[in-house]
C-alpha cells in the first residue's frame, strides 16, 4: 500500500526537488502540491494525504501556525522541510513540540540535494506509521514539584528516544525536581537542534538541563542531552562519572546512538536505571538489555502512548524492559525506580 504525500512549499523549485526525491521510492505517491497554507488546507480536505511535508516560511500564514491548526483540528503526520530547520533551531523544536514527526533541512544554495533528501523517503514512510494525536497545548513547568526527593546514592539514569521523543521528554522532565539523579539522554536529533532542545527542557524542568560536553561531571540535579552530529555520548568513570563524546561510525544508523550510551552506563560499577521511549527502529534495545542484565531498573514506553512503537517494542521483545509505562505516568515511574525509598522501589 503506497503512502500518499502532499507537498506544501512556496518554492516551485523546492516542490520539484522534494517530489523527485520521494518518487524514487515506489511505495510513495505524491498526491499534490500547495503553494501556501490556504491552498494546503483545501488540498488536505480533498486529497486526505497520509503525510504532509511542510515549509516554515510561506505567504499568508507561516508553517508553524498552519502546523498547529492541523494538529488541533485534523492530526496528520507532518515532516517539516525548511532552511529554518538548520538556522532556526528554536523554530525546529517548536515544530516538534507542536507534533511534527520529523524536521529536516533543505539543501543550502541548491547544493547537496541528493545528500539532504537521501533519507526523506524513509522518513516519510516512517511518519505514515506514526500515531499522531491532537495538539493540546505547550508543555509547561508544574506549579510545584514534590519536595524531599532523594535518588539512590551514585545512581545514573540513562534515557533513549527518537521519533516523538521531543514531546515525551518534555512531558517527563517537566516533573523532574532539582534533586533528580544524574541523567544522560540520547535523542536522535541533528546537531543544529540539540542545544536549543536542551535549553527548552531547562526552562520547564526543575533540574539543570544542558547539552552534554566532553568531560562534564554527572551531578545530581543535572541532565545532559547528547549533541547531534559526529560523536556518540558515553559515560565513563574511575570514581566520578563524566560524559565522554567519542567519534565513531553510526550505530544502528544513528550517531549519537542510544545503544552506545546504554552500553557505557552498563559498564559502570554503580546503580543505574534505563528508559527507552518512542522511536523508529531498534536502537537502544540491546543496550537496555545489557543494563537489565547488570541489575539496572529498566522501563519502556507503552504502545498506546508512543508516536512510533519501534524502539520500545524491540527492547520489550528482547526481555530488556522490566515494565512498560504510559507517557502520562512515566515521569513519576522513573523517579520511583530511582528513589532511595524502598517503598517506592517496590511500588514502581
From TrEMBL:
<feature type="modified residue" description="4-aspartylphosphate">
    <location>
        <position position="55"/>
    </location>
</feature>
<dbReference type="InterPro" id="IPR008248">
    <property type="entry name" value="CheB-like"/>
</dbReference>
<feature type="domain" description="CheB-type methylesterase">
    <location>
        <begin position="134"/>
        <end position="341"/>
    </location>
</feature>
<feature type="active site">
    <location>
        <position position="283"/>
    </location>
</feature>
<comment type="function">
    <text>Involved in chemotaxis. Part of a chemotaxis signal transduction system that modulates chemotaxis in response to various stimuli. Catalyzes the demethylation of specific methylglutamate residues introduced into the chemoreceptors (methyl-accepting chemotaxis proteins or MCP) by CheR. Also mediates the irreversible deamidation of specific glutamine residues to glutamic acid.</text>
</comment>
<feature type="active site">
    <location>
        <position position="162"/>
    </location>
</feature>
<dbReference type="InterPro" id="IPR000673">
    <property type="entry name" value="Sig_transdc_resp-reg_Me-estase"/>
</dbReference>
<dbReference type="InterPro" id="IPR011006">
    <property type="entry name" value="CheY-like_superfamily"/>
</dbReference>
<dbReference type="InterPro" id="IPR001789">
    <property type="entry name" value="Sig_transdc_resp-reg_receiver"/>
</dbReference>
<feature type="domain" description="Response regulatory">
    <location>
        <begin position="4"/>
        <end position="121"/>
    </location>
</feature>
<keyword id="KW-0597">Phosphoprotein</keyword>
<dbReference type="Pfam" id="PF00072">
    <property type="entry name" value="Response_reg"/>
</dbReference>
<keyword id="KW-0378">Hydrolase</keyword>
<comment type="similarity">
    <text>Belongs to the CheB family.</text>
</comment>
<dbReference type="GO" id="GO:0008984">
    <property type="term" value="F:protein-glutamate methylesterase activity"/>
</dbReference>
<protein>
    <recommendedName>
        <fullName>Protein-glutamate methylesterase/protein-glutamine glutaminase</fullName>
        <ecNumber>3.1.1.61</ecNumber>
        <ecNumber>3.5.1.44</ecNumber>
    </recommendedName>
</protein>
<feature type="active site">
    <location>
        <position position="188"/>
    </location>
</feature>
<dbReference type="Pfam" id="PF01339">
    <property type="entry name" value="CheB_methylest"/>
</dbReference>
<keyword id="KW-0963">Cytoplasm</keyword>
<dbReference type="InterPro" id="IPR035909">
    <property type="entry name" value="CheB_C"/>
</dbReference>
<keyword id="KW-0145">Chemotaxis</keyword>
